[in-house]
Each structure stands twice: as C-alpha cells, then as structure tokens.
Specification:
Elements (H helix, E strand, L loop, with lengths): L1 H10 L1 H21 L7 H12 L9 H18 L9 H12 L2 H22 L3 H86 L4 H26 L20 H10 L4 E6 L7 H21 L6 E7 L3 E8 L14 H11 L3 E6 L5 E8 L7
Parallel strand pairs: 1-2
Antiparallel strand pairs: 2-3, 3-5, 4-5
Helix pairs in contact: 2-3, 4-5, 4-6, 5-6, 5-7, 6-7, 7-8, 10-11
Pfam family, one: HATPase_c
Enzyme class: transferase
Protein name: histidine kinase
C-alpha cells in the first residue's frame, strides 16, 4: 500500500514541487506577519507569491520558471526592494536547470545568477568590507548551487546508464538462453532419429521372425509378439515426450549412433587422459533402460566432468557414481576443486541442458558447491515410464 502511494506521489511532479516550496513560503509568511521586513505586509505577500508560486512548475517547465523568477527578481532590483527570503527561489530553480537540462543551459543560468549578485552588490553594499563579504557569499551560493545541480545531473545520467546496461544484459542473457535451448532441442531431434530407428528395427526383425515361426513354433512367435508390443510402447512413450520439446522446422543434422551407459567407461578414460583423475563406481543392480534414458545419463556425466575440467582448477579429482535404486538411477559427480570460488562468466548453459534432458524423463538435477569444498552434481532419472515423477 505504501509503495503504491509513493509511486503515485512521484508521478505528480507539480505536487512534489509545491511540497518542496511550502517551507520557504511558510518562512516568508512568518517573517512578513512578524514585521521582519521593511516593506508593508501586502507588498511582502504579493512579492512572496509571485516568487514562490512559479516553483510549482520548476521541473515541468524549468527554463520558463527560471526566466519568470529571474525577471521578477530583476524588477525587484529596479524598484529598489531589498532581497528577502523568497528570493531563495532563484537558487532552487537554478539547481533544477543545472540538474535537469544540458550543461550549456546550466552554465547560462549560473552566469545570470552571478550577474544578479553583482547588481545586488552595486546597489546595496555600503562599505568595501561589506561588499567583499556579501559578494563572496553570493558568488559561493550561486556557484555551489550550480555545482550541486551538475553533480546530480551526472549522477542521474550514470544511474540511467547502469539501468540501461542491466536491461540490455538481461535481454542478451534471455536471448542466449533461448538460443541454447533451441540448440539443445535440435540435438534432441537428431537423437530421436536414432532412438526411433533402433526400436523400429527391432519391431521389424521380430515381426519377420514371428511371421516365419507362427506356424512351426507358436511359443517363439508369441515371444516375438511380446517383444514387439513392449518395444512399440517404449518407442511411442519416448516419441511423445521428445516431440513435445522439439522446435518446429528444425533443420536436419548429421545422424550418428548416440552413446549410452556402456560407453561411460570410455568417457572416464578419455577424461583421465585429459589430466583429471576420475574414480568410476557402479552400485546396485544395473537396470535395463531405453536408449534415450541411457543417452541422458551419459550426457549428464559428460557435462558434469566437462565442467570439472573447466572450473575445478589444477590438482582436482573427481568421482562418478551410478547408484541403481530399482526404479531409478542416481548419478552423482563430485569433485574437490574450487567449488564456489570458481570463476563463472554467466554464459554457460550446461546445467540448463542437463535439467532439460532429465526433465524429459521425469527426472531431476541438483548442482552446487559442497560445504567442504568442491562441486557436486546429483541427478535422478527413472528407468521406466511407469515410475516417472
């Protein structure tokens, strides 16, 4: 509620300017009614009104307001009315011009103020000492107000540039994430070719075998039909899930057999050859998984080890563990490298790719620095469709 009121208040620029001018108006009225000025109360009220009322528009029409208050002050000097507190409105509008308009307009306003200071000295200074002290005071007030306005103008420009830069970086980051997601989905489309081709090939072979054996060996034919049924259901489930995340109109890419769990040993040996000591362990009884799930497991391990090579630093070691839990497989990749202190340019999309791959099969991926140092990636992928979470 308070935030909405504040946002509404900030949009009412004349009301805000009137609120800032009110203390000056109150001070001037108290001085007028108390007989602090040599002028009559009526003249003071009129002069106070014409000097302070334009401040209501000082940010809406800063140059016009500055011109009006300057002309009124000059007319005050012409008729010989001594400066009074409402003349401080000139300093307020000088600050507004210096802070809200170009440097040339601010400099011109400051020079007008210095000219007014000289006119005041020429008319009301009695002694040389009085002229010197008054002149220094007026010059410092005008110059200080102008410098303060310039400082605020520079600060506002700097803040605007920071906001624009942050907005631009956010747009660029979103664009990069979208491009990375599109590339990942394109790779999934190419992988779908291999999954479907394998399952359809199995179905064709089993169907041919069943057609030959149906008259001579009914048991073998029945077994082939059961294999066709399970393979077809598995292929349909994978196709529905993969096609749901594909980008329409993706161009065809090179098709090649994709790796699976059985290729993890080769992957580990390849990483070891790169200079990173890796311990690979398998716990539990390995479950039969579809090729798509095996590919997901392989890619998660591959990406986690790649991140370890890139960010863990020298003398780091890694451990890869596959734990078969019956209805799911847990992948845990741990290293003892730099962990949270590792440099991050914010441009990587490996974790997003891992999470997207695991989510296709109802799995999850959690990654982050370890409390005792190093980094950890833990993924859980269901091994069958019926246990998808």
């Amino acid at each position: 509620m308070v935030g909405r009121i504040w946002d509404w208040w900030r949009t009412k620029t004349p009301l805000v300017d009137a609120a800032f001018a009110f203390p000056l108006l109150l001070l001037s009225l108290l001085g007028a009614t108390g007989g602090a000025y040599a002028l009559g109360e009526l003249k003071v009220l009129v002069l106070t009104t014409v000097l302070i009322f334009p401040l209501v528009f000082r940010r809406t029409l800063p140059r016009t307001t500055f011109a009006v208050i300057s002309l009124i002050s000059f007319a005050q000097w012409v008729v010989g009315i001594h400066p009074i507190p409402p003349n401080a409105s000139f300093l307020m509008v000088l600050y507004t011009v210096a802070a809200g308009r170009s440097f040339r307009w601010g400099l011109a306003a400051m020079l007008v103020g210095q000219l007014g200071s000289l006119l005041v000295l020429a008319r009301w200074s009695i002694t040389a000492e009085d002229a010197q002290s008054t002149g220094i005071t007026l010059v410092v007030l005008v110059a200080g107000t102008w410098i303060l306005g310039l400082h605020m103008r520079t600060r506002r420009a700097y803040m605007r540039s920071l906001e624009e830069r942050a907005a631009r970086l956010e747009r660029e980051r979103d664009t990069e994430v979208q491009v990375a997601m599109a590339a990942e989905r394109a790779r999934i489309a190419r992988e779908l070719h291999d999954v479907v081709a394998h399952n359809v090939s199995v179905i064709v072979v089993q169907a041919d075998g069943a057609s030959y054996a149906i008259e001579t060996d009914v048991g073998r034919a029945k077994q082939a039909l059961e294999t066709i049924s399970s393979t077809g259901r598995q292929a349909l489930a994978e196709m529905r899930r993969l096609l749901g995340v594909l980008r329409e109109g993706d161009g065809a890419g090179p098709f090649a057999p994709q790796p699976g769990v059985s290729q993890l040993n080769e992957l580990v040996e390849q990483v070891r050859a790169s200079g990173l000591p890796v311990v690979f362990a398998v716990e539990g009884v390995p479950e039969e998984m579809s090729e798509g799930r095996q590919l997901t497991v392989f890619r998660i391990v591959q990406e986690a080890l790649t991140n370890t090579l890139k960010h863990a630093g020298p003398r780091a070691e890694a451990r890869v563990a596959l734990h078969y839990l019956g209805d799911a497989v847990e992948i845990r990749v741990v290293d003892d490298g730099r962990g949270a202190s590792a440099a991050d340019d914010g441009r990587g999309h490996g974790l997003a790719g891992m999470r997207e791959r695991a989510a296709v099969y109802g799995g999850t991926v959690a990654a982050g620095p370890r409390a005792g140092g190093g980094y950890e990636v833990v993924a859980r992928v269901p091994v069958r469709e019926e246990v998808r979470t």
